[in-house]
Design brief:
With 183 residues, this protein is of the alpha+beta class. The chain contains four helices and eight strands. The protein has one domain. It is globular.
Length: 183
């Protein structure tokens, strides 16, 4: 690919820089067959787990509960980056945070699984169907580009992730962090 350059003119504030970095990150991840996911991410036993859910599903609550558990590290409660490397999916830390307003978590971990969040009175994990996993994966995928090939690359990456990662549904109660024993 040839060299390209550009010029950014923006207001000198944190929100403008954040928006630019999110756009740039999603641009490059789409071209690398990866994802920028609106999700919660944590590391347990050396593997990263991604929690997908609609707004209000409990991603930030889950993150706060997980952060209080010894042996569990929070990657982000807002945006997590996934990319396929040497045939395996890896999760990368990002500087993007939600309610917890923490610093970005540097690092890279093998993907342990993706859990689709649903509110429920008690914690449990069940299998999920491919259509429901695809629907939520695409809904939580963050992409700011509408250029040629963007949709095709995103769908191709989604198919590869669905074929190469374990998707399950987490029925999650906001009462405590014992859901981590199920992960």
């Amino acid at each position: 690919m040839g060299r390209r350059s550009g010029e950014l003119r923006a207001a000198p504030n944190e929100q403008c820089l954040d928006a630019f970095l999110r756009s740039l990150t999603s641009f490059f991840l789409n071209r690398a067959g990866g994802f920028m996911l609106h999700s919660a991410g944590l590391v347990k036993d050396g593997k990263a787990y991604i929690f997908l859910g609609k707004s209000g599903a409990g991603k930030s609550t889950l993150s706060k509960l997980a952060a209080s558990r010894p042996g569990v590290e929070l990657i982000s409660d807002e945006i997590n980056l996934l990319r396929r490397e040497k045939g395996r999916w890896r999760v990368h830390g990002s500087p993007f945070w939600g309610e917890m307003r923490a610093d970005g978590r540097p690092g890279s971990w093998p993907l342990g699984g993706i859990l689709l969040m649903s509110k429920f009175p008690e914690h449990r994990i069940k299998p999920c169907t491919v259509p429901e996993a695809l629907r939520l994966l695409l809904r939580c995928s963050v992409n700011f580009e509408a250029g040629p090939g963007t949709s095709e690359r995103a769908l191709s990456a989604a198919a590869a992730l669905l074929a190469g990662a374990e998707f399950r549904r987490l029925y999650f109660s906001k009462k405590d962090n014992s859901f981590l024993e199920l992960v």
